[in-house]
Amino acid sequence: MYTDHDVNAAVSANIISQAQADALRQFVESERATQLQDEEYVRFVSGFNDIFVVIAAGVALAALWSLGNLVGAWLGGALVATTSWGLAEYFTRKRQMALPSIFLLLTCLGGVFLGTVVTLTTLQPESAFGPIAAFALSAIVAIVHWFRFRVPITLAAILATSIGVALSLLVAVFAFSEVVFKLGLFSAGVITFILALRWDRSDVARQTRRADVAFWLHLLAAPLLVHPIFVTLAGATFDAGYLQAGLTILGYAVLAMISLIIDRRALMISALSYVIYVFSKVLASVGLIHEGTAVIGLVIGAGLLLLSVFWHPLRRKLVQRLPQRFAAQVPAAH
């Protein structure tokens, strides 16, 4: 089975021309009666060998972490990070396997972060330097990893670790404040969301790896934006009444409209847990304590399935109402 990535690779290798690739895509689209970009295609697994490699690498890296920790967390982290990098030289740079590439990036950064933060926190338990240094070192490794391997998720990892540095510094300098922390998260989410839109705009047809980069940026931006909003709606005691339920419906409707316009589903998925929590609390207040979550899950699940069925017609109606200069910057609605 050939993927859109394989077609692009064939064009890069001069096996087929760009015109032939475009004609092939148009033919496939007409056969499926669906645009490729409308399905928000992201390459995760090209075959079961991807899963096999991830399982094998996970077992080996877990063993290295355990053995290294017999000496110290710094050695365990170093062994995991360097081994992940070495494996990426083959499975990412040479084989270009999607799922192992994602996994090895995460284990590399995880080894760097955990090895650093555990070691420094052990040496100076009261110091805030440990998390700051761990996030900063992870960000540096992620930047180098991007220039070496160009894995689409890496830019999101760079932003995530950089946000970790900023928030850790914020907490260290001003002490912990829930309001400031939520503002920091939301601001980081806005910046990440804008960057994701810029990457999306650079590939409106979503036929290159730029679309994959944008997907991961949206996936990072979504919880950063959604968490502060819905936690604020729930209040300090996390109690939820009819007012919170109404505001939650309004907020989720806005997120759904944005998701439809930009043709990204990450915002809606990130908000689901908060919506279920708020409405289960409301149902519990009227006596449906045990059944509340199940009822809300059934209603929301059915609603999302219907939205999936009518995604394209709804998108078409929304995009048609946008000003032309905005409509040209999102995927075409068919």
TrEMBL record:
The lineage of its organism: Bacteria, Pseudomonadati, Pseudomonadota, Gammaproteobacteria, Alteromonadales. The chain crosses the membrane at residues 41-65, 71-91, 103-123, 129-147, 154-177, 183-201, 213-236, 242-262, 269-289, 295-314. Keywords: Membrane, Transmembrane, Transmembrane helix. This is DUF2157 domain-containing protein. It comes from Pseudidiomarina sediminum.
